[in-house]
Specification:
The chain has 186 residues and is of the alpha/beta class. Helices cover 38% and strands 22% of the residues.
Length: 186
């Protein structure tokens, strides 16, 4: 079985260690855990890893967040991976910091990366893992918050959140989305 795991984020030094790039952070950890290595390829950086007999193609699109659908569609088609065997990992300011939510379908929730993916794929039926970044910002400061660096308290807790996210992805590819939802909810 083959899976496409896409971490959403923005490329460039200025976006490293920001809340919006937590999708990149999750797939980076998964790549290290499964002893993969990144290489530049069409529409992003790719790593191919194995976990319990499954092949995972990890993708960090270089199309910027708001155009992520182009890279996702390209690699789904190129690798002949069905949409249900893909997983998009992204930040979510509608979830409390550190909370995970795994779903097989749903709205974009105001997330521009998910909105573009839905527009490009023509459906909202594709698995996604949302990583809560909280909503501790003043009115009108949403963009600054999302593109801002983690606070010291958040940064201290981040490794645990990334680890839990990686474990959720491993559950998704081995036991399926329905059972993996329980892993994410714990």
């Amino acid at each position: 079985m083959k899976y496409l795991i896409t971490g959403l984020g923005n490329i460039g030094y200025e976006y490293e260690n920001t809340r919006h790039n937590v999708g990149f952070d999750v797939v980076n950890l998964l790549c290290r855990q499964l002893e993969g290595s990144w290489h530049d390829d069409h529409h992003g950086e790719l790593a191919e890893v194995r976990h319990k007999g499954r092949t995972l193609i990890l993708l960090k699109p270089n199309t910027y967040m708001n155009l992520s659908g182009k890279a996702l569609r390209y690699w789904l088609q190129k690798e002949k991976i069905p949409t249900e065997n893909s997983l998009v990992v992204c930040d979510d300011l509608n979830l409390d910091f550190g909370k995970l939510r795994l779903r097989a379908k749903g709205s974009d929730g105001g997330h521009n990366g998910l909105k573009n993916i839905q527009d490009v794929l023509g459906t909202d039926v594709y698995p996604r893992l949302r990583v809560g970044i909280g909503s501790d910002f003043s009115r009108g400061k949403q963009v600054n918050f999302v593109l801002g660096k983690w606070s010291p308290d958040e940064a201290a807790e981040l490794p645990n959140i990334l680890e839990k996210s990686a474990e959720t992805i491993k559950a998704f590819v081995t036991i399926g989305i329905d059972r993996a939802m329980n892993v994410a909810a714990k």
